[in-house]
Amino acid sequence: MNLQNIFSEIEKTDPEVYDRLDTRRNAMKAFAKTSGRIAIASIPFALGSMFQKAYSSPTAPTDIIFDTLNFALTLEYLESNFYIKAVSSGIIPSGDALTALTQIRDHENEHVKFLTTAIKAAGGTPVSLTADNFDFTAGGAFGNVFSDYGTLLAVAQTFEDTGVRAYKGQAPNLISNNDYLTAALQIHSVEARHAAHLREMRQAAGYLVPSGVTVKPWITLNQSGIGTSAVQASYNGEENVMQAGVTITNIGGMDISAAAASEAFDEPLSKDEILAIVKPFIKA
Known about the structure:
This is Ferritin-like domain-containing protein. InterPro entries: Ferritin-like_SF. This protein is mainly alpha-helical and about 280 residues long. It has eleven helices and two strands. The chain has a domain at about 60-210 and about 270-280: Ferritin, core subunit, four-helix bundle (Ferritin, Up-down Bundle).
């Protein structure tokens, strides 16, 4: 048995394994010492025991990655099924509006397919949800979501703004795998484009926009730009004007307002915060 090859293969699978165990040298010494006292047939069990502390649930990198990807997949199912119903609702004006929302629907469908495939390819079990799992009225808060175009756009904007913050919040959980992290960031940027375009559509149409409010392609302070407090949780925290311990307002003697400082950065939301936001849209 070539112990060097065993550890080389483990290191290929998880380059950070020795950060959790100690060092590569000490891990090899410990395993060699153990395996020298037991039968060859028992060596796999000794190896498994040795690495238990590195891969014990729920802190194992693979478990965290699967949990994060399934969390993202749940949100993508929410958006995908929302846009499927939205495009077929018949209330979206033909032309550019219908074209844009149809394209967003297709993007969300592709995100669902991609995440499902990625989870399966890595040996995980992806969640599987349908429109029956969701209540897009959020318990009646948006009862006219598929009969009033303004409400539809407002809910769509909130979903996209929330999605952007969700992906940002989950990025640290994927940092151990560059491929998944890269894919998540690629989806994150598309969600941001969706949000910006929907905001421009809302501003142009003027639906559910409070008097005196200008809906920009980005978030200002913690303002949703939507005339209801029902979506406020998706925007709380965006008024932050400090990044990496540095106050952005008036930095370097420049005249930078709190509004401008907040617009320059998006803030992450934790999984618990996201779940609380989307809970009304998911049937028990």
